[in-house]
Each structure stands twice: as structure tokens, then as C-alpha cells.
Amino acid sequence: MKLSALESALKAEVKDSLGLSDEQLENFSVSAPPPHIRADLSLAWPIAAAKTLRKPPAKIAEEVKQALAGKFSAEVLPPGFVNIRLPDKVLLEAVSGMVSDAGYFLDPGRSGENINMEFVSANPTGPMHLASGRGATLGDALARITRFLGSRVSEEFYVNNVGGQVELLGLSLKARLLGQNPPEDGYQGGYLKEMAAALPADAAAWTDKQFSEFAVKEMLLLHKADMKAFGVEFDRWFMESELHEAKGPGKALEELKKRGMTYEKEGARWLGTSSVMESDDKDRVLVKSDGRNTYFLNDIAYHLNKFNRGFTKVVDIWGADHHGHAPRMEAAVSALGYDKKVFRIIIHQQVLLKRGAELVKMSKRAGDFISLKELLDEVGSDACRFFFAMRSPNTHLTFDVDLAKKKSNDNPVFYVQYVHARINSIFNNAPDKGIDPAGTFDAAKIVLNDEERLLLLKLMWFEQVLETCVRDFSPHHLTAYLMELSAMFHSFYDKHKVLNPGDPVTSAFRLFLLKGVKFAIAGGLELLGVSAPEKM
């Protein structure tokens, strides 16, 4: 039985026994008990329900214990926790379902979701940097996890190939060709020298626009190559120029006007959200007094385009430098008539690079930084993606290059991958010991020891970990889970023999257990975009 199904079963038992309504059971959910509590599940609902039911939490907890009696072993701890011990059979069935049922983790409630997940969207003005890698890891991992649970997800990269920054890039490239210094506020990086060397012979006669178009085309080729090497395949690279060709900004403005959300002042057109939207503190200009659209209007048009393409939910993953733009964008989407639940912005913090005991100083505008490609070439995609996924997006991340290169258990990704390779080796060795790696066992003859039980229970929580990643928009829960599961495997393997020709029943059970561990590790790594080596 899946953990979610088990939670529903427990809730139904309590509902029927205590004669409660769905509203009274709104906060009913199970969690993992603290390590010092000898239990499998913990229920804190009696504490939350005390005010609604007008009973002391301890009394509600006792009633829950009685409601579960006969099916589950439970004990009550102050001030109103119910700690539940599951039958061994439930744990065995859960792991069996995981490894044998292809649709085990699919949530029917997600079948109608069609999610657009936009991330990275780096301006095509230079090589991808470390923050791009963090955004790519965050977006791609969340897309994979959400898709694994049953939603449709489209991964998208928005290319700002229109505007002042692109024009400045073209001028910077032109200056390099002519042997001049780039504009003072232009781009200084050495990558422009390489790009200038690739220009055709007649480029000196080009217009400024041609230089910009060439630069964008070349940078996009590099961006796409970087993302492919990083294991990210976008469903669509959406060009801002497409938006303007379809007159998207004008259509968005008309929609906002129709909804009465705009007004004129000082010759400009404004979005009047400050008085009706909590997310924004002041009104914003959509069209300047000279008739030019603001970037804000173009961005609104892009989001309206997403919803018009049929997406039921839109998720934007932005770097920390876009933090101030989030409230106004949330207000704009609300002004278009969409519920705030269908639009979510995730802000991820910057990445610091550490070599030895020193932090590496970087400046993107000056061209003095470590590109994502350089880091990939040095430590590999697996280490990059695992390390980038190890922290919540709202925390700064320090990437330890030396640690990422280590081939030892000190390196978190090596530690997890080694467990997968070790289990694979055990299965390969089974026939040599006269043991069928696909053998069956009689569950009634199995008496679980502590380490086996902990592993089974940890595997049962895999589903909930993935749901938590989606709820919190962060894959760091999954990296933590994989490291904890790996530690439990090592603890088990250090104490207990798996392949024992003299005890075929126990051997078959332990191979089944390791099959579950291998499934969770391989699956978890795949959802992070990290490989699961067969040998190491």
C-alpha cells in the first residue's frame, strides 16, 4: 500500500469511528516520527483539531488510538501525538508495489495538469554561468519529478533577443572586429574575441542590427550545447521576437484595458494594480509617453501567451537579480484574471565557487567568471547537478570544486552512486553462489531485524519525498533522502550478509530488499538528472 493510500485509510478509520466531517479532518496527515521514537508514523492532528472539536488533544489522541485498534498498533504521547507501528506486511507490500507496478507513483489527481515550467532564460549576451546551472538543475529536476507523479510538463527557455542588451552585445562584437574597445557599459568577455574571429569576411560592412543577430545566433548555439551537455532538453526555446511578430504586447494591453486595469497619466499608459493587489506596492508603466512598450508589458504578453497555449499552471524560475520583478508580475497575472494558484515564481540564490579554502571572485559583465561549461568540463554533469540540487533555492549555495572531484564517500554524489553500483555487483554475484537473484520468499517466514525494517520504511517514504519536492518547489528533499537511504544501506550491509547459500529464504528476501533500494536510488538519481552507474 502506498503511503498516500495508507494515510487515506487511516483518515477514513478515524472519520467513521469518531463521526467527523471532512472539514474537521482537514489537517489530518502523517509524518515521520523523530529518531528517538520507536514508531513508523506520527500523527499530530489531535493537537491541531483540539480547538475545532473542543476537546483536549490527549483525549482526541486516545480516541484515535481506539479507532485504529485491531488494525494498527498505536501509542499516545503528550501533548497529543499518536505514534503508529505498521504491520510488517504493509511495508513489504509497499516495496513490492514500488518495484513491480509501473504506475505505482502516478497520482490520478494530476492527470489534468498541464504545466509550463520556464527556467534559465539567460540573456543571449554571454556564456552560461553557475547560476544558470543552478536554475537548470532546479527546473529540470522539478519537471522530471512532477511528470513522474502524473502531470504533463513542458520545459521552456525564453530568449530575450530584442532590446537594448542585445543591441549592446552587437556593438561590443562590432568593436572587437574593428580592434576597438567595447562600449563602456558593453560586454568585455574574451568569448567576443572568439566570436569576432568567426565573422565572415564582409562583416565590416554590416549594420549594427546584423552584428546583434549574428551574436545572438552564436550565443544560442553555445547555450543549447551547454544545456545538452547538462542533460536538459527544453521542449521549446521561445524567442521574444516571436511575441512581437504575433503582436502579443498589443493584445495583452487590450486585454488589460478591457478588464479596466489600466489608466493614462502624463502621456503614458499604466497598470493600476497597487490598489487592488497585495503583491505590488505601486502602479507600473506599460507604455511610455513616447509610445514605446516597457519590458514589463512584453513580459505580461509572454505570460498571457503561455495561458493561451492551454497551460493550466505556469511556473517561472528566476535568478536572485529578478527578485524585485516578482511582485509586479504576480500582480499582472492576477490583473489578467488568473487565480494566483496557477502562477508561481521561484527565486533561486546565487552560486559561490570554492577552491580549497578560498572563494573564487567573479564578475560577469567584466567577463571574469567561471562558465557553466568550464565547471562541467572539470567536475562532470553528475556532480554539478547533484550539488546544485542539495540546497533549497532560497539559500545561497557554495560549490566546493575539490569535494565534487573526489572519488570517495566524502563526495555526496559518489556516496549515493556507489550504493547503486554495490547493489548491482551483489546481484551479479548471486548466481556464482548458487542463488537465484529473482528468487521468491514466503513473507510469513521473515522476521525483520531493525536495519531491514528501517530500510523498508524508508523506501515507503519515497513517494512522500517526491510530493514534498513538488510542494516546496525544491529537489533538495530528494538529495537528502538519497543520502539517508545510502547511509541506511551501509548500516544494514555492514551487519548482515545478503548472499547466504545455506539460507535461501533470507537471501531471497534481502535481495528483494536491495532491489527496492536500487530502484529508489536509480529512480531518484534519474529524477535529478544524475546517472546511476552499474560499476564504479
Q: How is the topology of this model organized?
A:
Blueprint: H1 3-18, E1 30-31, E2 41-43, H2 45-53, H3 57-68, E3 73-77, E4 81-85, H4 88-100, E5 114-118, H5 130-148, E6 152-159, H6 164-177, H7 191-197, H8 208-229, E7 236-239, H9 240-245, H10 248-258, E8 262-265, E9 268-271, E10 284-287, H11 295-308, E11 313-319, H12 325-335, E12 343-348, E13 351-355, E14 358-359, H13 372-379, H14 381-388, E15 397-400, H15 401-405, H16 412-429, H17 450-460, H18 462-472, H19 476-495, H20 504-528
Parallel strand pairs: 5-6, 5-11, 6-7, 11-12, 13-15
Antiparallel strand pairs: 1-2, 2-4, 3-4, 8-9, 9-10, 13-14
What would your notes on this structure say?
The protein is α/β, with parallel strands linked by helices and 536 residues long. It folds into 3 domains: 3-86, Gyrase A, domain 2; 119-245 and 349-405, Rossmann fold (3-Layer(aba) Sandwich); 412-528, Isoleucyl-tRNA Synthetase, Domain 1. 49% of the residues lie in helices and 13% in strands. The chain contains 20 helices and 15 strands. The protein has helices at residues 3-18, 45-53, 57-68, 88-100, 130-148, 164-177, 191-197, 208-229, 240-245, 248-258, 295-308, 325-335, 372-379, 381-388, 401-405, 412-429, 450-460, 462-472, 476-495, 504-528, and strands spanning 30-31, 41-43, 73-77, 81-85, 114-118, 152-159, 236-239, 262-265, 268-271, 284-287, 313-319, 343-348, 351-355, 358-359, 397-400. The strands form 4 sheets. It has a 5-stranded parallel β-sheet with strand order 7-6-5-11-12, with helices on both faces. Strands 1-2-4-3 form a 4-stranded antiparallel β-sheet. Strands 8-9-10 form a 3-stranded antiparallel β-sheet. Helix 17 packs parallel to helix 20. It is globular. The model has no long low-confidence stretch (mean pLDDT 95).
